[in-house]
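Troubleshooting: if your tokenizer reports a length mismatch, compare against these two reference records.
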Amino acid sequence: MTTTIRPEEAAHFGALAAEWWNPKGSSAMLHRLNPVRLGFIREAIDLHWGGDIDSPSPLEGKTALDVGCGAGLLCEPLARLGADVTGVDAAAENVAAAKAHAEGIGLSIDYRHGELAALGLGGFDLVTCLEVIEHVADKEAFLATLVERLAPGGLMILSTPNKTAQSRLLLVGAAEAVGAIPRGTHHWEDFIAPDELTEMLEALGLTVTETRGIAFSPMKGLHLSEDQSLNYILSASRG
């Protein structure tokens, strides 16, 4: 089995576990990013399964896996959308924080710690992996493991920073310099461009159905956009 977890990355994010649910703490950027990602995810769910766009539970009867779940910022909304949710993270501290938070609000979510390929999980209708692939040791092996967890007819959602001059300047340079993102969070050389990620997914048998940028402006804040220069989110399906 190829190891995809970088111990230093797991340690970095594990050290932030206690503040994960504080919208003004070290994960403040994720709290601002989460509603934007959820908007894309909800639309992708409705398009993929052709459900009622007004339904509060479009994932009722479906299973969802969030890989690199942190303390559960995405797992909890997926559970509220009706899914039977499993969250996996490389940092034991994050899993402990996620379990405690879910239990505190009465949500039943199965949280696991460790290397995804070693956990013996089955297939899932929805697989999400947001802001994670830039932190793994072997992108090809990691993506292959994600695809193995996706059931036939399933939907995958990935998001990650683009590898551009703008992302180097703003996400690695400016954002970490002013404390918007904790120092050491990003390493530009590990970023991946949309075309490259699409090619990797297609080689694994998936079809990328939509790719949108996540951009920032003073007027709109973080928002879905055609501008993919900083960050992007995509959906992919398996027939």
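Reference record two:
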Amino acid sequence: MQQEQNEQTIPQSTRKAKLYGVGVGPGDPNLITLRAVEILREIEVIAIPKSKMERESVAWEIAQSHCPSGVSIMELEMPMTSNEEILQAAWQKAAGLIRAELDLGHSVAFLTLGDPSLYSTYSYLLTILKNQLEPDQIETIPGITAMSAAAARVNLPLAIGDEPLVVLPGIEGLDAYEHYPNLVLMKVSRNLPAVLNHIQKTGSQAVLATRVGQTGEEIRLLRPEEEMEKVDYLSLVLCKRDGSEDFE
């Protein structure tokens, strides 16, 4: 509160331009935080990461109504590839564009679905820009994650008491986590057969959550006897072993 009061007393022209990493939540506009809205109402430049430049940004759709009508839009191409050289070049280019706006005195809000600290492109830019900016020129605004929103939609605790919760960015090495009571499996779009095999082997119950809070949302119990090869890219699975909280 004291920091906000101090900022309000500093003339706009003398404030340092800042980078804000803004988590806008999983998709439902009602799940964006008050702090995120506060920043978006005053921001000068919105940075939007896009895997392909012709695609619409869900994060921008959530944030748009909260932004000034004349806000400047900076679209940053972040290719979907595992090629480290291509990724590094994209991150460096994006960081350079953001730094150029900051040097002009324009604060920038980098939008990200969910939370900017969890498997977000923002983290790569942050690593670069933390070495170039003053500490008070960067502020990360946390957001509600898709896994939290999905669990809330089915009234399911992600973990209870002293239970561990493991969040995996994919299904590689899933066998090593068979004995954990609570798993969140991200990026399952191309690996449903492996997830279904895990459910059958461990007797786990599982919820498939697709596009949480967005158009086309689907959240349902995943049956181990199903035969699915692929689901939407924005999908995750919540797994609980028998003896834990029931989904139904």
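Descriptive notes for reference record two:
- Confidence is low (pLDDT under 50) at residues 9-13.
- The longest strand covers residues 45-50.
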